[in-house]
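FAQ: What does a multi-protein file look like?

Like this. Sequence, then tokens, then the next protein.
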Amino acid sequence: MDSYRLTRCELEIMDVVWKRGEATVQQVCDDLTRPLAYTTVMTTLSILESKKRVLNRYKQSRAYIYRPVVSRAEVSRVTLLDLRKVLFADSLPSLMLNLVSDDSLTESDISALKAALEKVEGRN
């Protein structure tokens, strides 16, 4: 779904809401890893609710509380499919090889990748 195309800033804000389960504007501001103006966070949350429809909100006292409508997994899936299509000519091997060519892979990462491949091979 095109509405799951989120900007980096939107993803940062969604990360806070996903971790909390629900959050006010102030809670999002407090939990962000980089400082953003309160009004920027408020506007972004409003866009995520009204235009992108990945959040719902309800009023409690004087504050709106935002709750995710879609999961992190759903947004991740759509984002990765989009990256695959746009940057890697819809080639899954190209996307995967680009990801694993990074020198920062740990033994644990390699083991997890091997296990995932074995699981996929077992299904086929």
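And here is the next protein:
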Amino acid sequence: MSVWKQLLLTLVIVVVAAGLWVRYYPGAGAQLSALGIDWLTFAVAEVSPEQAEQPRRRGGGPQGAVVTTPVVEITINDRLSAIGTSIALQSVEVTPYTSGRMTELLVRSGATVKSGEVIARLDSDAEQIAVERAANALKDAEARLKRQQQLLRSNTATAVQVTDAELEVENARLQLAEAQLALSRRSIETPIGGVVGILPITAGNYVSSSSVIATIDDRSEILVDFWVPERFASAIKVGSPITATSVARPGETFHGVISAVDNRIDIDSRTLQVRARFPNEDDKLRAGMSFQVAMKFPGDEYPAVDPLAVQWGSDGAFVWSVKDGKGERVPVNIIQRNTDSVLVDAPLTTEDEVVTEGLHLVRQGAELKIADRKQAPASDEPPKPVAAESGS
């Protein structure tokens, strides 16, 4: 085949391909208009009233007509759902100060104790003897001081001797106090009030300063720790209300407040630790229970369009909006994709409509023939809450 025939065949193929691209590629008209090529027109078959009543094509409306959908407004980031783990308001493992054999255990598992109450005693014979010895030494030092004071009045003793006797008395008092402290520490007291857990030890056992005698939980209030995504960090404030439900008690909702917010984001999980406080007057809740916590926020509102309305061009995503019966290309920034809607950041309001079917018929500023409108994307169903799984 000669060269000129090859060039002619190539030219024909290019023209046909260009025509098909302009005719069927969404957004081709807008791209040509941007390049200043807006003089190309394409014939659209006239539609008679009888043809308009015929069944619609896959495009959605009669030939030459487009289908539009109203824009709705949807609020996101307005609620938080997370899994948390509870701890007691105060919790302590009671251990003795010193080693020894436990002679008495004065509480039982499940008992309620008060702060400072003695729950166990260790053998204290040696400590009792030390207290009596220190008491005798104090009496002797006081008697010696009294004699020195009498001798000082008769000029038989000096003031230095009286001062030495006074120092001996003070030292004897300190030794007695030390002995009494050692004796008192043979009685094991609870530092907080609460409920005693299962006792891991019984009377007669030898214990050391690291042996746990009992665990005590103050369950007057329950604290729930949970972790939230970092985008909620500025929205959560101490004192904000919060609700929680427990798997162990289905159907019951507990109301509390945020009691503490951590001062930094965890760099590995990009989450923030938050602590909530819930009253527990009826003693229904226990430490270690799992809770589903929920919070509400003002949230962010965005226009939502039908997923079919979103098109893509060389400069990104856009939709065709209907303004005064004419098509208008509106660039959009996609925020969130849902099943039946797409949230976008764009200059759209609830009074606007976007084209969802017959997009190949739309040109910038061209008059549009609009068929019956589709139902707007559901806006009464809230978006799925963001869940932040607890790490504990």
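Q: Is there any per-entry metadata?
A: Some entries carry free-text notes. For the entry above: The domain at 124-185 is CATH 1.10.287 (Helix Hairpins).
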